[in-house]
């Protein structure tokens, strides 16, 4: 029982923490979804292959190292990420965790996906630390208008596909033109309890 209470406490603590998100303006609200206009934002992203359930874990391990200190500054020194951050010229620059983690269709094959970590607004492409891992790309996502359907629960492919179909059908019924591929946005830690997770499906639309 102690272990269960401890896990719930840690999860609740993580849920209650304020995490920076990309800025957007709410344009319209429908019964099943809403339309948002996002300002440009920066991402660190990587492309991975595997099943739907495997991709997130593979990419997370790559990207978490980057934001935890495995990046290079002007000194161009390979750095480590201590559990406790110390002031040191040789220490990697730590980047605050933001939300969401975004998953998109990959370019290499049908089993690949591009996973992105949204970077804090305080950075520009010029000031973001350069990755040491050549699997990581830094880029700016331009301003865009997206339809968003939010749901809670697990990150399984089945649940994703069910809600993706709901969003596409709702957009068609509302005569809203789809101009982009669906993306899967996850706002919580993998350790968050399933019923506390905030998940979103995003599709770029024309308005």
Q: Would you mind describing this structure in some detail?
A:
By secondary structure, the protein is of the alpha+beta class. The chain has a single domain, classed as Alpha-Beta Barrel (Multidrug-efflux Transporter 1 Regulator Bmrr, Chain A). Helix content is 23%, strand content 30%. The protein is built from three helices and twelve strands, in the order αβββαββββββαβββ. It has helices at residues 2-16, 52-67, 157-173, and strands at residues 24-29, 34-38, 41-49, 71-72, 101-105, 112-118, 130-131, 137-141, 144-151, 177-178, 183-186, 199-206. Strands 1, 2, 3, 5, 6, 8, 9, 10, 11 and 12 form a ten-stranded antiparallel sheet that branches.
Briefly summarize what is shown.
The protein has a single domain (2-206), classed as Alpha-Beta Barrel (Multidrug-efflux Transporter 1 Regulator Bmrr, Chain A), CATH 3.20.80.10. The chain is 23% helix and 30% strand. It has helices at residues 2-16, 52-67, 157-173, and strands spanning 24-29, 34-38, 41-49, 71-72, 101-105, 112-118, 130-131, 137-141, 144-151, 177-178, 183-186, 199-206.
